[in-house]
Write a structure and sequence with these properties.
Helix content: over 70%
GO cellular component, one term: plasma membrane
GO molecular function, one term: transmembrane transporter activity
Keywords: Cell membrane, Membrane, Transmembrane, Transmembrane helix
Number of helices: 17
Structural class: mainly alpha
Pfam family, one: MFS_1
Number of domains: 1
CATH architecture: Up-down Bundle
Distance between the termini: 38 Å
Number of strands: 0
Strand content: under 5%
Subcellular location: Cell membrane
Length: 380
């Protein structure tokens, strides 16, 4: 699945690297771009419980995964045909809906390998492959812009990575038709979705509210002329390339000390927006690895945490519900950011940092409750 995600993220991030600028070119405002990104992320998370529940109830993990990837991937090259920002927005949102369909099933299947590898390492390796694709995508988009200067051509050529992702997905299905058989021992400690799970959900939503979308960040760099437009995808590639290392390091650090991994990841992520929004070109370059760290917290640490709380048979729903709340936080945060951006970038930077830092004590409280619950279960 890591190889599938490599080509999938190459497609998505290649498109995401130019979505903000493309929407702006078609006439969308900063508020519209932020709300589009937030709405897409919200639906991309809000629909996950439905997909997870269907997969858990039916056991049709592969069928749900294939349907999700088909929508998720095909919406990106279709952007080449968009004649208005409203149509482009619909395709961006459709891509997120497809992602919502396949994400819980993919995370559930990966969770079956955590008994052997360790939760941090398993999700870290998978996310590192994601980020490798996410690094190549913007570089390819940037190269096309350098050579052709045409956003539509960049979108259209991403059809190649769509085909490669689908081929890899078919190979994965043929190789591992029943992913549950990969699990060794029990990786989950909870029998129900208890207090630690709900605390983690609240902390995740708060962290998401402070996660600045790259679309708005790219719009800012373009609008302020901080970075030439053709270099913006290169900066995204730099941030995702840094994210490869961040996922591997934070994943291994999580297996050693989840408390340290969470604290380091969240504090560094909270520094991204203040540095990006208040500085020039050099500060934008410095900020990019911090953006990669923020997504490592989301894509490695949070998944490792939830995998350790969910029993087999409820993981699809559990992952889906967690990221549904995460998407709700993202939507509210994105709306607030879009409105704040037009008034004060200083206020926006303060909002982003405050939201993410406020999530840390809740994460640590949830961790303490999870340990207490585990000790209680063992004594019974």
């Amino acid at each position: 699945m890591g190889i599938v995600n490599l080509f999938g993220d190459l497609t998505y991030e290649g498109g995401a690297a130019i979505n903000g600028q493309f929407l702006g070119m078609l006439g969308a405002s900063a508020a519209a771009i932020s709300i589009i990104a937030g709405t897409g992320e919200f639906l991309g998370y809000a629909l996950r419980p439905v997909a997870g529940w269907i997969a858990d109830r039916s056991g049709a993990y592969w069928a749900v995964t294939f349907a999700g990837y088909a929508i998720n991937l095909c919406a990106v090259p279709a952007m080449a045909l968009a004649g208005s920002w409203e149509l482009a927005a619909a395709l961006i949102i459709a891509e997120r809906v497809g992602r919502a369909m396949r994400k819980p099933t993919v995370e559930t299947m990966i969770s079956y390998t955590t008994g052997e590898l360790g939760r941090g390492r398993a999700f870290g390796l998978n996310t590192a492959l994601d980020e490798a694709g996410a690094t190549l995508g913007p570089l390819i988009a940037a190269l096309i812009l350098f050579l052709r200067g045409d956003y539509r051509t960049a979108y259209a050529l991403l059809t190649i990575s769509v085909l490669l992702a689908i081929m890899a997905l078919i190979a994965a299905r043929l190789t591992f038709p029943v992913p549950e058989r990969l699990e060794q021992g029990r990786t989950a400690t909870a029998k129900t979705l208890g207090l630690p799970y709900w605390l983690y959900m609240g902390a995740g939503a708060l962290f998401a509210a402070g996660l600045l979308s790259y679309e708005l960040g790219a719009y800012h760099l373009e609008r302020t002329r901080t970075v030439p437009s053709e270099w913006i995808p290169v900066l995204l590639a730099f941030s995702t390339g840094s994210g490869v290392a961040a996922n591997l390091i934070l994943g291994r650090l999580y297996d050693w000390s989840d408390k340290v991994a969470l604290t380091v990841g969240i504090v560094l992520s909270a520094c991204f927006a203040p540095i990006l929004l208040q500085g020039g070109f050099a500060m934008a370059v410095i900020a990019m690895p911090l953006w990669g760290i923020g997504y490592a917290v989301q894509d490695t640490l949070m998944k490792a945490i939830i995998a350790g709380l969910l029993p087999q048979g409820r993981r699809g729903l559990g992952f889906g519900m967690f990221y549904s709340a995460y998407g709700g936080g993202w939507l509210l945060g994105s709306v607030a950011m879009g409105l704040l951006y037009d008034r004060s970038t200083l206020a926006l930077a303060a909002f982003v940092a405050a939201a993410q830092l406020a999530s840390l004590p809740i994460f640590l409280l949830a961790r303490r409750e999870a340990r207490r619950e585990t000790r209680s279960n063992r004594s019974q």
